[in-house]
Specification:
Rossmann fold, 14% strand, alpha/beta
């Protein structure tokens, strides 16, 4: 089937997943701005977060939840930018094959929008991806992240197409695409070798190279 556009998740699809140590440092840097030294459980709670957990942690340290989250997003974006600059976070080699696709390309990530911008800038991807977005650094933006379809629906509207294929590496990607009414290609990278899907994707691939036989 031909698609009018192809949209990609970022982490685990275009770039290698961010090392957890990088995320942890960002969270610790965020708390340092409030004079707090959190324990490991709190740090991990701000990485594998949900809105209730964020509010509980903020209450524990008597910090405004919105202020804590904004600082967390800024600090984690900064540590990820450093990881991009020093090679701890880089592109998968098969991203170069996407130039062969004869369709507009976009990025929709649950990572911070600032981080997505850093990736596009670091690897000079603006000519390849005409649309690229991540979540806003707010609690509202956090709650709109995938598997909610909001960001995907916004992307399809902004690109101005009727049909699009979404490429992701997680259940939230598969579910978000389904809720947005899009076909989805699940890419089973090595870090997803034993990953169990909760819903069937339209396609399952092992490399971005395979998209040339699907999307055009």
């Amino acid at each position: 089937m031909c698609y009018d556009a192809v949209v990609f998740d970022n982490d685990g699809v275009l770039t290698y997943p961010t090392p957890r140590s990088v995320l942890r440092q960002g969270v610790r840097d965020a708390f340092a701005e409030f004079g707090v030294t959190p324990d490991d459980a709190v740090v991990d709670g701000m990485i594998d977060a949900d809105i209730t957990r964020i509010q509980q942690i903020a209450e524990r340290y008597e910090i405004d939840p919105a202020a804590l989250w904004a600082q967390r997003e800024s600090a984690v974006a900064a540590t990820q930018r450093s990881a991009l600059e020093d090679g701890r976070k880089t592109l998968y080699a098969d991203v170069g094959t996407l130039a062969e696709l004869d369709a507009p390309l976009g990025i929709v990530s649950n990572n911070q929008h600032e981080t997505v911008e850093s990736i596009v800038d670091r690897f000079d991807l603006s000519a390849l991806f005409g649309y690229a977005t991540g979540r806003p650094p707010t609690l509202e933006g956090f709650q709109r992240r995938k598997p909610q379809p909001d960001f995907l629906e916004d992307a399809v509207s902004a690109i101005g197409v009727d049909s699009a294929l979404y490429v992701g590496d997680s259940n939230v990607d598969v579910l978000a695409a389904d809720r947005a009414g899009l076909d989805v290609a699940f890419i089973r990278r090595p870090h997803r070798a034993d990953y169990q899907l909760v819903a069937d994707p339209t396609y399952e691939i092992e490399s971005l190279e395979e998209l040339s036989a699907i999307a055009v």
